[in-house]
């Protein structure tokens, strides 16, 4: 049972444009959501997060939006840069717990 | 944050042998560490929670006798894949959870690529 889903396995965006990565979840008990970026043969690195009590969090070129009623969150990267090419994982955490539940990941490719 | 290292970064072994993977928290004392496994083009799947000074907590479907976890100190957790078989070939990643005032996240090690022949 995949509680966190990233339905797009890959996304290709032109440099300078906006990249939008989507994530859906099924469990309303999740209280915290995170995005991680991963390069091949490396561990994931934290990008940005959002609490379930908020609907938006922004950090530089990265913005995460949360729609609780739709159980959907998205990561916006603008403007997209070649160095953003990586696999992006959406993750969720249960209230009071430390362990994370990850989505399948979306491979983002930024084309020059 | 926390700096997390893993050793080895990659290992090739014969079927039936055991392999030990180390996860070290270099600048943070971790009472808890997490072990994940990632198959190609798939998600990171949590295998177990390593607890310093006590037994590890395994996720459903993970064989505790096959994947032995020892959290001997606040900076070191080890995962031993016993009697490894080709289906155990995967990318194993550990993480250290760090609580802060405004967020609570995990810092991941670089991962260990295990190939069982």
Question: What features would you describe in this structure?
Answer:
The complex is a heterodimer of chains A (112) and B (117). With 112 residues, chain A is mostly beta strands. Chain A is built from no helices and eleven strands. In chain A, strands 2, 4, 5, 9, 10 and 11 form a six-stranded mixed sheet that branches. A five-stranded antiparallel sheet of chain A has the order 1-3-8-7-6, with no helix packed on it. In chain A, strand 9 and strand 10 (100-102) form a beta hairpin. Chain A starts with a strand and ends with a strand. Chain B is mainly β and 117 residues long. Chain B is built from no helices and eleven strands. Chain B has strands at 4-7, 10-13, 19-25, 32-38, 44-51, 57-58, 67-73, 76-81, 90-99, 104-108, 112-116. In chain B, strands 2, 4, 5, 6, 9, 10 and 11 form a seven-stranded mixed sheet that branches. A four-stranded antiparallel sheet of chain B has the order 1-3-8-7, with no helix packed on it. In chain B, 37% of the residues are buried. The mean pLDDT of chain B is 90. Chain A binds chain B through residues 9, 32, 34, 36, 41-46, 49, 89, 93, 98-105, and chain B through 4, 6, 9, 32, 34, 41-46, 49, 91, 93, 95, 97, 103-111, 113.
């Amino acid at each position: 049972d995949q509680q966190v889903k990233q339905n797009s396995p890959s996304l290709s965006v032109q440099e300078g444009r906006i990249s939008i990565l989507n994530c859906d979840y099924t469990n309303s008990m999740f209280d915290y959501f995170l995005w991680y970026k991963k390069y091949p043969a490396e561990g994931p690195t934290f990008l940005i997060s959002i609490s379930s009590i908020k609907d938006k969090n922004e950090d530089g070129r990265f913005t995460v939006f949360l729609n609780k009623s739709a159980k959907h969150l998205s990561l916006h990267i603008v403007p997209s840069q070649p160095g953003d090419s990586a696999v992006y994982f959406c993750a969720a955490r249960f209230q009071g717990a430390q362990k994370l539940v990850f989505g399948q990941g979306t491979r983002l490719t930024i084309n020059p | 944050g926390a700096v997390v290292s893993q050793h080895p970064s990659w290992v090739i072994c014969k079927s039936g042998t055991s392999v030990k993977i180390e996860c070290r928290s270099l600048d943070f004392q971790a009472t808890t560490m997490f072990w994940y496994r990632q198959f190609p083009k798939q998600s990171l799947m949590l295998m177990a929670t390593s607890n310093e000074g006590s037994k590890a907590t395994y996720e459903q479907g993970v064989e505790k006798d096959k994947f032995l976890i020892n959290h001997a100190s606040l900076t070191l957790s080890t995962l031993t894949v016993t009697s490894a078989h080709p289906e155990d070939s995967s990318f194993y990643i550990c993480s250290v959870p760090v609580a802060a005032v405004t967020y609570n996240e995990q810092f991941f090690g670089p991962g260990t690529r295990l190939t069982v022949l």
